[in-house]
Amino acid sequence: MSWLDLSRLDPNAPGRFPGIGSVPTEPPNTERPTTEPPVTRTPSTTSGPPAPPGAEPATPTTAAATPESAVPEAEPEPEKTLDELLAELDALIGLHEVKAEIHRQVAVLRVEGLRTKAGLKSATITRHLVFVGNPGTGKTTVARLVGGIYRALGLLTKGQLVEVDRSELVAGYLGQTAIKTAEVVASAAGGVLFIDEAYSLAGDQYGTEAVDTLVKEMEDRRDDLVLIVAGYPDPMVVFIAQNPGLASRFRTTIEFADYTSDELLAIFKSTAAKADYDLPEATQERFTAILAATPRGPSFGNGRFARNLLEGAVGRHAWRLRDIPEPTVTQLRELLPEDVGPEPNPLDVGELAPLLGPPPEPLSDPADMVSGQPTEADDSEETT
Questions:
Q1: Residue spans per domain, the chain
Q2: Residues 323-343: what's their mean pLDDT?
Q3: From the CB of residue 192, how many other CB atoms can be counted at a distance below 10 Å?
Q4: Rounded distance, CA 91 to CA 40, Å?
Q5: Of 81, 91, 121, 166, whose CB count within 10 A is highest?
Q6: Is-contact 226 146, C-beta < 8 A?
Q7: pLDDT at 11
């Protein structure tokens, strides 16, 4: 027998594989009558009682019978027109100088497009913008509207807003920052790339690499990309001056002033109304009093301050109604003055006093201690 002949191997022997050799792994079933036809079962895709004799077989219905193309898709929201976007801009609270500058930019870019369409020569106008101002002054909201306005003017193909900061542009090693920044810019192609606190890219080699990449991408994608950098006024001057390419591409700076007290109250009322909350006169006076007692430095939140107060009021309102099984609609809508207030500091001893209990009694009278030496009473206790 040739060593390649496997016909005599026992397929059931230890270490052997069933099926190798001429011995079958299962003997044929000789007890089944040969006259009985084999039964073929087809998986049924319908449910219900069996059909009566003589009825035509039902056509199986499966999920695959309906093509995916037949499922109606949700229609995308219609893009807003230029007039709608400008009306939305004008409806913002405050920001009078910002609105005027955006309207001026729209007029210049619109006429520039008409001159190009008519075959006239025109000067190159940079569309990139610098937003300076304190936090919470509406810079991100206006940047989103700018993307839509530029798209409506035909200057951008998509008009989306991509908001990033230093952490999303700078990598952990030199050479990787350029790749990371280029990928972020590519995701914003056709829209607006908004870099908040852009001055954080100044002062080190990693930030310099990101800025150099931004300058190159701004040139390569100048026809379908708008870059908006934002931050505090003074640091943004340093950021723009660190690279000559930035200074030549950012010709328009828009300053976002802090909101006045009346404007902050209007933001507080508008945000509450959009959430279906009512603010009685006493509640508005409570907000005004808290605002007057809050210092307004560079870190003041402006509109964010008003929104945070409202969120805190909503939480206190819910806690106030916790024991009412079925509050009325008026109770569900109305924010009372006690609902509005600054968030409590958990480190405040006054807040923790109920949890800590009474203070411990002093161990001894400080007057009985002189320079840390034991008193006469201590000597008597020791001698006893």
A1: 82-256, 261-350
A2: 91
A3: 28
A4: 72
A5: 166
A6: yes
A7: 52
Residue 36 and residue 130: Cα distance in Å, rounded? 87
**Local structure of residue 335 (DSSP, 8 states):** P
In the predicted model, is pLDDT for residue 86 greater than 90?
A: yes
CATH architecture of 261-350: Orthogonal Bundle (1.10)
Q: Which helix (H) or strand (E) holds 292?
A: helix 281-292
Q: For 82-256, which CATH class?
A: alpha beta
Q: Decide if pLDDT at 263 tops 50.
A: yes
- Three-state secondary-structure class, residue 284: helix
Summarised one tens digit per residue, pLDDT across range 220-241 is 888 899 999 999 988 998 888 8
Tokens representing 194 are 């908004």
- Report DSSP letters for 141-196, one per residue: HHHHHHHHHHHHTTS-SS--EEEE-GGGT--SSTTHHHHHHHHHHHHTTTSEEEET
Dihedral sign from CA coordinates of 313, 319, 323, 327: positive
Helix axes 261-274, 303-320, angle to 10 degrees: 50
Residue 247 scores a pLDDT above 90: no
The three-point CA angle 110-111-112 to 5° equals: 90
Beta strands 226-231 and 192-195: pairing type?
Answer: parallel
Q: Is the pLDDT of residue 175 over 70?
A: yes
Q: At what angle do helices 139-152 and 82-90 cross, to 10 degrees?
A: 160
Angle at alpha carbon of residue 81, lines to 80 and 86, rounded to 5°: 100
Q: Return the higher-pLDDT residue of 17 and 180.
A: 180
**How far apart are the C-alpha atoms of 196 and 192, rounded to whole Å?**
12
Cα–Cα dist 180/357, whole Å: 55
Identify the burial level of 245 via C-beta atoms within 10 angstroms of its C-beta, where 0-12 means exposed, 13-18 middle and 19 or more buried. Answer: middle
Angstrom distance (rounded) from CA 197 to CA 232: 7
Query: What proportion of the chain, given as a percentage, has pLDDT over 70?
Result: 68
Q: Which two tokens stand for residue 70?
A: 């037949």
Instruction: Quickly state the pLDDT bin for 47 (edges 50, 70, 90).
Output: very low
pLDDT at 69: 47
